[in-house]
């Protein structure tokens, strides 16, 4: 297992290098000069040249890239072109905010998604099942910004139960977490339902019932545990998505998280900040996938990682 | 199964802990705190490194230039005892600082701080963006070129007195350094902060000092008790960053914000709502216009440009499109600015004459042209105007293809001179025509905006006007220059002047909004809510 993890971590280095190179090339190919954006109407040729020199943008592209890589390995990702803030500082701060939002949304998605999915499978064809399936379709298809605005209008503006935006109050993350979590909850409930339906039709479940085990034990210990593999796969990738930040939720609720930071960096051609956010997202996905793969071994004893995997 | 239960419980606990972390910056009871819904410009507060009015909203309360414009657009002394009268043919300005002005760290303002602030603007390695406001000072250009590290045109006489010498007379010099870009910073603190100035530390001599420095969520500024000028009435201003317009509106309607900007497109909706009495407006010094590319194969023909002017029904734009929230433009220079010519009549709407001009230009069957727009402006005034023009110009055979691009691409393409035509929005940096008509239409500037206007007679008028010290002569020269550009050469086709709107709670008093497109809460106070 240790060898497997080490191998995957080494692969991460290659992934990060590739991601940084692709990002660098793309940002240098698309039109848009951060200096022109910065100077706006004062972009005289002299001013542009001077600021490009100060920012190091007049150096050869290869030099710029290798300079970035050599500093990045020392965890120095440079400074934002616009705010002048060190990228690592911004990433660290924004990660804290995204983590709070993502963990809240994830908790909602997992707890409610699995519970509702199990209940739906057990009531297959019944009213609850229909309700859950219908709700899941709506949850998956409803745009997150629409859900967010509805929540803001009802629970923030009209009822005044929760803050409409910002992260200044202890209740600030409730509405964004619900808005963000609903979609993931719907996906998880669907997968849970399908997986549970498959498992509860298996012989060993019938055997467990025939042995006289309590239904609660049959469902939770025998059925759900065996149904967890696809749920974990989905939940793992969704954890990556959540930690990558949600631009729309963050925008609507005025939450300064990673998603908004990345989109702003793209729009403003803030290459150092963009490189930082892209590398962060790559790390998040690689690690969440690794965590999922490792967790299989703990959930299902039949899965073991051997040399060559 | 127990493991799963434990895991889920931990998840719930984890999220509950995160959700319930302490609130940030609760408002102190009994204080007069104004809450302003601001947009995060994602920029340093340092005014030498940004050009955003949204940042000025905050910075103007914290740092001050030597002189500035009041609500009525009069230039007033701020850090100096009086406005200096230029000598030696308009080249030398002698300033005397008010005594005992304190920075927010308790240190006293000296002439050396002023010199430091100007030199910082010009030092080549600093890469400051707004050096243009004072680069006519002797030695500035050498510093910008990296040939020198000292501003030789800035002479310190004593701690409170200094003299600035210009290369050539520049009439709007005081107006130019009276912008927020000319803010004076404390030398010692600014040097110590280095690149973090404006990012983690920022202060000046202004009426408010920053007590919560949060570049993500907003700034909290409190009254500076040792302020040298008139003491502000508000105890504090809470600048809350909310970028989404709808969210800002909801926060305002719920009573969580006291003042927000209101997009012109929402004026009609709000004017019919219970919030109608809370709508305020002001007219910034700016103009909305058609900017043709004079190097374009079709638009390079002055008859085509004149035809466009005749084919545009400005009454429809002002009335039906903008619901009379704007005023008709008759010149490029806006009405409240020197050089505006009251005697000029409205542009004529005459489609037949426009068709005749098109025929004379050899375009009887019209032509197709690409009009560019920034994608985020498509639903705002420029986008709506462009859509209306697309419809109106069909009448003379001009078929407009609207091309949307993101802001960064827009800057790149426009500076490359490749945009055939666009709806321009132009606002002045300081209330002087030099900061308005010169910065857009002077030949060396016009090419930066895909306009390419180049008329030596026009340039000569502007050169003379900027160096003349006689206001009456300047006024006449700007009137002539405007006439040349907008009525003879049609290098710009003025459409209307925008009003800006905001919502302000009735208990906020004396919110004197000036036409400089930034909010100043110097005199504002809160009556009992």
Q: Can you put this structure into words, describing what you see?
A:
The complex is a heterodimer of chains A (309) and B (529). Chain A has helices at 2-29, 34-39, 45-54, 61-72, 87-122, 127-141, 144-158, 174-200, 203-210, 215-243, 247-252, 258-267, 271-299. Chain A is mainly alpha-helical and 309 residues long. The longest helix of chain A is centred in the middle third of the chain and has 36 residues, at 87-122. The N and C termini of chain A lie close together (10 Å). The relative contact order of chain A is 0.14. Chain B is an alpha+beta fold. Chain B folds into 3 domains: 2-60 and 206-283 and 500-526, Periplasmic binding protein-like II (D-Maltodextrin-Binding Protein, domain 2), CATH 3.40.190; 67-196, Alpha-Beta Complex (Dipeptide-binding Protein, domain 1), CATH 3.90.76; 286-497, Dipeptide-binding Protein, Domain 3 (Dipeptide-binding Protein, domain 3). In chain B, 30% of the residues lie in helices and 19% in strands. Chain B contains 17 helices and 20 strands. In chain B, strand 2 (67-69) and strand 3 form a beta hairpin. Chain B is globular and about 70 Å long. Chain B starts with a helix and ends with a strand. Classes of the chains: A mainly alpha (309), B alpha+beta (529). The interface between A and B is large, with 71 and 67 residues.
Give the topology.
The complex is a heterodimer of chains A (309) and B (529).
Chain A: H1 2-29, H2 34-39, H3 45-54, H4 61-72, H5 87-122, H6 127-141, H7 144-158, H8 174-200, H9 203-210, H10 215-243, H11 247-252, H12 258-267, H13 271-299
Helix pairs in contact in A: 1-13, 5-6, 5-8, 5-10, 5-13, 6-8, 7-8, 8-10, 9-10, 10-13, 12-13
Chain B: H1 2-19, E1 33-38, H2 53-59, E2 67-69, E3 75-77, E4 92-96, H3 111-122, H4 140-144, E5 154-158, E6 161-165, H5 173-177, H6 187-193, E7 208-214, E8 218-223, E9 236-241, H7 245-254, E10 259-262, H8 267-271, E11 279-282, E12 286-292, H9 302-311, H10 314-321, E13 326-328, H11 351-360, E14 367-374, H12 381-393, E15 398-405, H13 407-415, E16 421-427, H14 437-441, H15 443-446, H16 456-467, H17 471-488, E17 493-498, E18 500-504, E19 508-509, E20 525-526
Parallel strand pairs in B: 1-9, 1-10, 14-15
Antiparallel strand pairs in B: 2-3, 4-6, 5-6, 7-8, 8-9, 10-18, 11-18, 12-16, 12-17, 13-17, 19-20
Helix pairs in contact in B: 9-11, 16-17
């Amino acid at each position: 297992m240790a060898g497997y993890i080490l191998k995957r971590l080494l692969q991460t280095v290659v992934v990060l290098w590739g991601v940084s190179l692709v990002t660098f090339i793309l940002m240098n190919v698309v039109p848009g000069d951060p200096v022109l954006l910065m100077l706006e109407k004062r972009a005289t040729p002299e001013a542009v040249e001077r600021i490009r020199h100060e920012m190091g943008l007049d150096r050869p592209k290869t030099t710029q890239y290798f300079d970035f890589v050599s500093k990045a390995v020392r965890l120095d990702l440079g400074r934002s072109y616009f705010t002048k803030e060190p990228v690592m500082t911004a990433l660290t701060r924004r990660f804290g905010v995204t983590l709070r939002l993502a963990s809240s949304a994830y908790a909602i998605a997992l707890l409610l998604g699995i519970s509702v999915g199990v209940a739906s499978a057990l009531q297959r064809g019944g009213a609850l099942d229909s309700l859950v399936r219908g709700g899941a379709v709506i949850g998956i298809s409803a745009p997150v910004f629409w859900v967010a605005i509805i929540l803001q209008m009802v629970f923030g503006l009209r009822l005044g139960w929760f803050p409409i935006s910002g992260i200044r109050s202890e209740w600030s993350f409730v509405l964004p977490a619900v808005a963000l979590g609903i979609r993931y909850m719907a996906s998880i409930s669907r997968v849970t339902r399908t997986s549970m339906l498959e498992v509860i039709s298996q012989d060993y479940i019938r055997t467990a019932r025939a042995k006289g085990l309590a239904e609660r034990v049959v469902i939770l210990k025998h059925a759900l545990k065996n149904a967890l593999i696809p749920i974990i796969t989905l939940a793992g990738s969704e954890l990556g998505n959540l930690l990558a930040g949600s631009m729309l939720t963050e925008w609507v609720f005025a939450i300064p998280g990673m998603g908004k930071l990345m989109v702003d960096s793209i729009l403003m051609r803030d290459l150092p900040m963009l490189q930082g956010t892209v590398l962060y997202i790559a790390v998040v996905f690689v690690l969440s996938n690794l965590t999922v793969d490792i967790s299989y071994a703990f959930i299902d004893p039949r899965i073991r990682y051997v040399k060559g995997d | 199964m127990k493991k799963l239960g434990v895991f889920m419980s931990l998840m719930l606990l984890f999220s509950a802990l995160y959700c319930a972390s302490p609130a940030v910056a609760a408002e102190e009871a009994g204080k007069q705190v104004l809450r302003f819904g601001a947009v995060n410009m994602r920029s340093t507060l340092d005014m030498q490194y940004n050009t955003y009015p949204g940042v000025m909203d905050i910075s103007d309360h914290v740092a001050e230039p030597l002189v500035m414009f009041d609500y009525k657009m009069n230039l007033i002394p701020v850090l100096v005892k009086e406005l200096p009268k230029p000598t030696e043919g308009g080249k030398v300005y002698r300033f005397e600082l008010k005594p005992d002005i304190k920075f927010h760290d308790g240190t006293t303002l000296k002439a050396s701080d002023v010199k430091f602030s100007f030199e910082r603007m010009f030092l080549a390695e600093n890469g400051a963006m707004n050096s243009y406001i004072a680069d006519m000072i002797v030695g500035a250009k050498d510093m910008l070129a990296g040939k020198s590290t000292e501003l030789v045109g800035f002479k310190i006489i004593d701690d409170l007195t200094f003299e600035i010498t210009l290369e050539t007379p520049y009439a709007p010099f005081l107006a130019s350094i009276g912008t927020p870009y000319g803010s004076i910073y404390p030398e010692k603190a600014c040097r110590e902060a280095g690149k973090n100035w404006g990012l983690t530390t920022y202060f000046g001599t202004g009426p408010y000092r920053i007590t919560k420095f949060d570049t993500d969520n907003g700034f909290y500024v409190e009254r500076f008790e040792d302020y040298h000028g008139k003491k502000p009435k508000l105890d504090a201003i809470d600048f809350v960053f909310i970028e989404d317009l709808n969210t800002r509106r909801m926060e305002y309607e719920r009573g969580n914000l006291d003042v927000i900007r209101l997009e012109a497109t929402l004026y009609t909706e709000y004017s019919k709502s219970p919030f109608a009495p809370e709508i305020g407006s002001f007219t910034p010094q700016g103009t909305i216009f058609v900017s043709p590319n004079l190097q374009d194969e079709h638009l390079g023909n002055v008859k085509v440009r004149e035809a466009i002017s005749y084919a545009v029904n400005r009454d429809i734009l002002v009335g039906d499109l903008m619901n009379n929230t704007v005023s008709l433009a008759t010149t490029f220079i806006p009405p409240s600015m020197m050089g505006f010519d009251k005697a000029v009549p409205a542009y004529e709407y005459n489609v037949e004459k426009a068709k005749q001009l098109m025929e004379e230009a050899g375009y009887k069957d019209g032509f197709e042209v690409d009009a560019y727009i920034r994608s985020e402006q498509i639903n705002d005034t420029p986008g709506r105007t462009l859509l209306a023009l697309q419809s109106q110009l069909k009448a003379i055979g001009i078929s407009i293809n609207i091309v949307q691009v993101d802001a960064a691409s827009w800057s790149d393409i426009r500076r490359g001179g490749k945009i055939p035509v666009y709806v321009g929005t132009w606002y002045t940096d300081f209330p002087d025509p030099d900061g308005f008509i010169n910065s857009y239409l002077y030949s060396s500037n016009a090419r930066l905006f895909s306009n390419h206007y180049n008329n030596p007679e026009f340039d000569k008028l502007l050169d003379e006007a900027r160096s003349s010290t006689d206001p009456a002569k300047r006024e006449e020269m700007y009137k002539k220059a405007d006439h040349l550009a907008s009525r003879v050469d049609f290098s710009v086709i003025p459409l209307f002047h925008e009003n800006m709107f905001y919502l302000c709670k009735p208990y906020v008093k004396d919110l004197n909004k000036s036409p400089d497109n930034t909010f100043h809460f110097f005199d504002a106070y809160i009556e009992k809510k």
